[in-house]
Amino acid sequence: MKAKEGVLYAMIQDDEVVQIFDSTQLREWDENAIFAVEIPQGKEILIGQRYDKKTQSFVEKSLDELKEDLKAQISFYFEREVSYMQAGVTQGEIATYESQKREAQEYLADNNTPTPLLSEIAKKRGMSVANLAAKIIAKNEAYVSNLGKLLGYKQSLCKQVELAESKEALKGIIYKSPLT
């Protein structure tokens, strides 16, 4: 089928809208492989909205269903940002994180405290245990601060979703990273 210019289409999979497109994004498609329907002019259709093939119409989601969808979307963006914060961290670093932090805190409180893990890391990196301990604490504080911002923001948005009394109110709840 060929897409008409200026017309929006909904790609349907398992009775649900999975993509919205126009002729600039998909000019032509095989109707045997892709089921797509024209979206009536002026009708707002969302990804995830159901489509009834028998009645050939879009089914409006209830307020509760839309709330669940929005909370899932907020959680997705939250988890993605947490993943970005953890990018490049190796399994070895994760496995020794608590030990590194504990040794760093103890060393900074009393520089006579034994630091078997930090001493080896510092030696291999060619730096002092004091500098390494300070670096570990600074990175931990930055991580915890950013994680706190993300968690607080996620919880705030989810609370707004819970309190929303209309579909219109939900449209105003948009995840925007608190870290940028």
Automatic annotation (TrEMBL):
<protein>
    <submittedName>
        <fullName>Uncharacterized protein</fullName>
    </submittedName>
</protein>
